[in-house]
Amino acid sequence: MSDDEAAVPGNKPIRLPKKAAKVKNKAPAPLQITAEQLLREAKERELELIPPAPKTKITDPDELKEYQRKKRKEFEDGIRKNRMQLANWIKYGKWEESIGEVQRARSVFERALDVDHRSISIWLQYAEMEMRCKQINHARNVFDRAITIMPRAMQFWLKYSYMEEVIENIPGARQIFERWIEWEPPEQAWQTYINFELRYKEIDRARSVYQRFLHVHGTNVQNWIKYAKFEERNGYIGNARAAYEKAMEYFGEEDINETVLVAFALFEERQKEHERARAIFKYGLENLPSNRTEEIFKHYTQHEKKFGERVGIEDVIISKRKTQYEKMVEENGYNYDAWFDYLRLLENEETDREEIEDVYERAIANIPPHSYFQEKRYWRRYIYLWINYALYEELVAKDYERARQVYKACLDIIPHKIFTFAKIWILFAHFEVRQLDLLAARKILGVSIGKCPKDKLFRAYIDLELQLREFDRCRKLYEKFLESSPESSQTWIKFAELESLLGDTDRARAVFTIAVQQPALDMPELLWKAYIDFEIASEEYEKARDLYETLLQRTNHIKVWISMAEFEQTIGNFEGARKVYEKANKSLEDAEKEERLMLLEAWKECEVKSGDEEALKRVETMMPRKVKKRRQIQTEDGVDAGWEEYFDYIFPQDQAAKGGFKLLEAAARWKKQREEAERAAQAELDAPVPSREEEDDEKENDGKEEKVREGDSDTDLSSSSSSDSDSSSSSSDSEDSDDDDDDREK
Predict the structure, then answer these.
(1) One GO cellular component from the entry (predicted)?
(2) C-alpha distance from residue 353 to each of 115, 177, 343, 346, 392 (Å)
(3) 97/89 Cα distance (integer angstroms)
(4) Out of 92-96, 359-363, 429-433, 698-702, least confident range
(5) CA–CA distance, 630 with 648 (Å, rounded to integer)
(6) Who is most buried in 43, 88, 707, 726, counting CB within 10 A?
């Protein structure tokens, strides 16, 4: 086909579509552009802004009509495109109103209502347009139609009544309100009607509206309070009081509200009726639950502080505290401290017995949970509730049979196989003693030591029998006690003291003898001391001395030695005391230096009392010297932490023993060297004639022996001893020199 053939009539060539070029590089561009960036750039460059149309001045009526025609066409086109866009209808109607075409505007609004007759904004704009044009009857007609179609729309009623009030058509406005409240509208509508009547001083009409209002919305407490305050403001005190009373009747005792009670009481307070206010407060406290009486307590307290007496104020505070305690125990029934405080408050205020017993029963019903059932520490606070309950029944209520039942119930609830409370058993037994029933008391204590043989129960039982002078029973109880716990030193001592008080010295001594033979005792020192004191009190000094000797065979304690020496002093045997001190000094040579110093000081004091000057000087020569030394401190990790100073005691006998030990070491060393020399000489005699080389070796050996002999001298002894003294102590320079002088003398 040629170019001429491809042409169309009119000599316009047909453009054939070209083949799309293939994209060679499909990699993303290095600079990415987002839609947000495009929109921002368009806004910055103002690409979408259309310049405003130029202002035109219309001077010709025909031009004006043409302008109105175009404007109407624009509005009609907009409505035709979207009939449901109500804003277009409203703009259209307002524009017609602005050019004075009220009839056309009314027609536009009527057309809009045909589209959506339940649009509140269209009805309001329609009515406002009529009011602006001072077409009151037309506006009334619009409002009547609106409230007929939508009677629950508050805006129509408010605007309608306001319009009538503005044109001073008060009866018409009242008629509108009456029509409105027939529909039982919300509280705001009633309040608006009431305020309308109050603006025109129509008190009776406002009261009537209030009464009708309360029939409809009486469930709201604030409405009753508003009505009562309305009557009070206008001086109708009787009507106000009647309003509060009707409010209380309306809600009844079950649904009574604390707000009404507080407002009623404050009203009576303003009227100087303090007794009536107090009665209202008390009524609320008695009939309302504790969690709703906080405000009542607050205002009641303020009322009593202003107008009440001291007794009344205390009653209010006590009632408030009761409420607080009730709240605490309701939140946590295992808060035993709160129960204690609550019960103490009730008992101090001498509340009725029934109320106190009820609180006690509620308290003891909170047994520790099963997870804590086997742990005694969770029962320690709880068990005192039972104790206080029993004591209250016995001492305050004087109901002894009920107290006995409380004790029995408490003992039944305690898991005696796991643990027990000796206090309960003892209190129960003492209660029976106070009731002059000794058989029951003995039975209770017998059952207690049978179920759970505790030391406290045995002692309480023994004390009871001692007070009753039943000594044979006491002996039997002590025997049972010792069978149960033979390691108790106190029990053995008490048993022996009992026998001693009864004048049976042999039995007491036998008890002590058996006691000290027990293999395991918790406090053997107390037992031995009591045994020795018993023998001393019996003036059996030889037996006491034998006991001391026996005890010293078992232990080498410093206090035993000093006690034995003091015993010898008390009987006037200073020589025996001196011998005891000498034995102790020899026995305690390896003991701590503080104990040895304690012994020497006691010995010195003994010699001062005896008056023997020579013995006193001898003891003084044995007294140690007090020196200051330094030692290195190490932490728990073994790291050096510096040096510390401490005081040490140097005993003369330790130094003497130390010097003698060094001399013995030197003698042993000399003896060893001498024996080696003799063996060498004997070997030389027994050996054959040596060669020349062997003679040279012998000369070398002789030289070595001479060197050894040179080291074996007095000077070497003194030097070695002095070096040993230097290495054994880290004292001051003066102490080292004194040690060297002592070694040289020895």
Answers:
(1) post-mRNA release spliceosomal complex
(2) 80, 61, 11, 9, 10
(3) 12
(4) 698-702
(5) 10
(6) 88
